[in-house]
Amino acid sequence: MTFDPNELEASAIYKLLTGSIIPRPIGWISSISEDGINNLAPFSYFNMLGDDPPHVMFSTRRDNNKNKDTLNNVLATKQFVVNMVTEDVVEQMNTTSQSIPADESEFDLANLTPIPSIKVKPMRVKESKIHFECELVHHYFLEGHQQGGACVVIGRIVMMHFDDQVLLEDYKINLETYKPVSRLAGSNYSKIGEIFSIKRS
């Protein structure tokens, strides 16, 4: 079957895309408001953009033409932290996806421990094994939307934190101790399954 996105309902487009573009890494984004309130929320529209210099991106939906707290905070402070999601914190990550008042913190809601960053103001999640401190370099609001669209946020990594237990020699990552979790569709997530290698020709 073929589909013209201009002729589909938004819910159908969402299901087709999130069900087929998988698995998606999860960017667990911590930010801080101008009033000093810590915010934490997961985004599966997330990935790295490059390593020279290192940049990441995440995209946040704007349902009903309204910004999420994360976006408001990042646009105001120009900073955020990416906390990578692993099997041992996936339930708490899911808890932080709830909508709560802007003057409350998801760290408290999910019983997570905020710890200071080195170069940016937003806190890191102590329970996460990997953190990337980021400074905002660019943002772009998708055009032609009908219900609010989304905003793409690009950040430059200015500091990286890795738990010793996930590191191997020569800066390689130990997947057996890292145990990352990725997003599928609906309520589904995935763990690392069978791994195979193909050498580049």
TrEMBL record:
InterPro entries: Flavin_Rdtase-like_dom (IPR002563), Split_barrel_FMN-bd (IPR012349). Residues 19-172 form the Flavin reductase like domain. It holds the Pfam family Flavin_Reduct. Its cofactor is FMN. The keyword Flavoprotein applies. Keywords: Flavoprotein, FMN. It comes from the Bacteria. The keyword Flavoprotein applies. Belongs to the flavoredoxin family. This is Flavin reductase family protein. It comes from Flavobacterium macrobrachii.
